[in-house]
Amino acid sequence: MPSALITGATAGIGAAFARRLAADGFSLVLVARDEDRLGASAESLRLRYGVGVEVLPADLSTDEGLGKVEKRLAEGVDLLVNNAGFGHPGSFLDVPVAGELRMLKVHCEAVLRLTMAALPGMRERDRGAVINVASVAAFFTRGSYSASKAWVVSYSESVAAELTGTRVRVMALCPGFVRTEFHERASMDTSGIPAFLWLSADDVVREAMRDLARGRRVSVPDLRYKVIVGVGRLIPRGLAGQVSRRLGRE
User: pTM (2 decimals)?
Assistant: First the structure.
């Protein structure tokens, strides 16, 4: 039975990955900070899909939490989904430096360290995959959030290039606005976001798994966002940044 470790696994895109992978017969390792919620999610998945589910409570903004997950990854998994992440409301200039550093720890350092912990075993077996969840914000300019997600995309592409000739794949997943707890947790006002821009987490995961199977290094789910990213690459970055600031993050 193949195995998958998912960070940020109890809600939103992470929970959607857990459901999809359990349905596909993967045993799961669920990582999140809330131990009670982890337990409830694991029990639900076991009952519904009949798969093995481990829980690993860990705060990825701390070295202790990262170390726990690195140790588990060194034991071997077939798929790593680096999904944990968060946003800040308002302008990044209003966010305390400590908050920005915590974001970089989770979005960048955790992605790097956990990917590097998983890859040796995958390379030795010559199979496996890593999905690093970024955002369409990576292609626009909006503070530390978009900068951190741009790093995730660039890092994922670089690692994927290094693995050319092997059967180990690395892909950056760049969804747009997804109906999850992300914006509520960050106290973001989403009232100005047009309804047609919202995606479901399950649809995002379905397209991500399809793109991974096709060997894509960057996945942008949904035609709407493929067009937005394509247009964004053609217009001046200053104008793209203004549009991004109006719409908000993610």
Answer: 0.88
For residue 46, which amino acid is it?
Answer: R
Average pLDDT over residues 170-180: 89
* Sequence spans of domains, the chain: 3-247
Per-residue CA distances from 216 to 96, 158, 160, 161 (Å) = 37, 13, 10, 11
Query: Whose CA is closest to 60, among 52, 72, 51?
Result: 72
How far apart are the C-alpha atoms of 55 and 32, rounded to whole Å?
8
d(CA 171, CA 104): 19
Given 49, 145, 155, 225, which residue is catalytic? Answer: 145
Distance CA(137)–CA(241), nearest Å, equals 10
pLDDT of residue 97: 86
Can you identify the CATH homologous superfamily of domain 3-247? NAD(P)-binding Rossmann-like Domain (3.40.50.720)
Q: What is the CA radius of gyration of the chain?
A: 17
Instruction: Please say if 49 is a catalytic residue.
Output: no
3-state secondary structure 157-175: HHHHHHCCCCCEEEEEECC
Pairwise CA distance, residues 226 & 232, whole Å: 10
